[in-house]
Fold this protein.
Amino acid sequence: MIARSKFFGVMVATALWAGAASAQCFTTQLDYDFRLGIFDEVLGAVLVNPSTGENLWTGDMGSTPIWTTIPGQASAEFVDADNDGNGIDEDDHLDLLAAIVNGGAAGGSVLNALEASNPGAVAAIQAAYAANVATLQTIEITIENVEIDSILDATTDVTTGSNLNLFGGLVDEDIPSLWGINEASPEDGLLYSADGTGLLEASLIEILAGVMTIGDPAGADYVQSLIAQIMLTVIEVVLPDLLNNLKADGAPLVSTLSLPNGFDAYAAGGSKAFTVNCAGISDFDESITVSGLDADIHIDAQDICNALQNFIDNFDCVTFDCESALLQASGNLNGSGDTNLASYNNVAATTRQAWMGLESILNPPLEITSFTPDTTVLTGDEHTFDLDFVEGAVGGP
C-alpha cells in the first residue's frame, strides 16, 4: 500500500516553510510564485512510500514519477511551465489573477485603469475568487456501498465531513472533513493533516480556486488530472483510518486495510481531462476477527472508481464561478484590443509585467526572475555581493 509518512512530511514541509516564508507576501495576499514554487516539494512530502521513504512525486528512487502520469505536466515543478497547454504559463496566469484579487478597490492605484477600461471586471473577479474558495471547502468525497458483515450486517456510504451511525448507535462516529475550516481545530481536517503543517491544504485552496476562477477549459481539465492523483492517496490513507474508527462493543472493527493497484488506477482520456480507469481498480475485501467474531468489509471496485470520478467532476464551471470571458486565454480582461493570449505571446513576449500592463493593470506586482547563485559561505568569512536598485512607480505596491 502507498501511504503518507507523517513524520517525513512534517520534517520536509517544516523545512520548506522555514526556507520559503521570508519570500512570501503578506498572509492575506495571494502569492502564486510562492505557492507554485514549493508545490512540488509539498507533494513530495505527502506522496511518500513509507517502506522506502521514496518521493513518489519525483520517483527519486527509480519508480515511475507520479508527475509523468498527469497529461500535460512538463516536469515535477510548477514554475515557468504551461502544464495545461493553454499558451500561458500557470504562474503568470495565476499572478494576473492575484494582482486583481490583491489590488484592493477598483479605483485603487493598481486597478483604476482596468476598471476604467472594463467597468465591473475587478469586482466580478474578486467576488468570484472569494466564492470559489468557499465552494471548494464544501466539496467532500463519498465512498458508496461500504458493506460491513458481522453478527450485524450493514451497507452504508462513507462521506468525509459527516456522521456515521450504524447498528442502532453501536457505531456513532464523526468523520473528519477534508478541509480544516469545517473542523473545530483546523489541523483535524484530512487535507490539513496530510503533511502535518497545512501547506498541502493551503496550496490546494489557492491553486484550485484560482484556476477555476480563471475558468479556462484547459486549466479545468488539468486540475482534474492533478487532483485525481492527490485524492487517490487520500483515499488510500483515509479509508483505512475511517474504517478503523468503526466500533463494535467498544473494540476496533477494522485493523488494517489497503487499496490495490495504487497509482496505476488512472488512465488519461483523449484530452487532458482525467477519466478514472475502473478496469485498473480491484474490489476491496478484508476479513478480520473482533472478539472472536468474524467481520468482513467489502467495497466494489466500481464504487471506489465512482468516488474518485465524482470528486474530480466537481471541477467545472457549473460548480464554480468561472470568469472565463475575462480571464481565460481566449478572454479579454480589459475589454479592448487583443485577447489575453495574444497580448501575452505577441506583444508582451511572455513577460509578466509587460503583459499585465497591456491588460490595464498599472504598477503590477514585482516578479523575481533571477537569484544570486548558490554559494557556500562559512561563518566568520567575508562574502561580498552587489545589488542593483530599480526605482518603483509612484503609487505602486
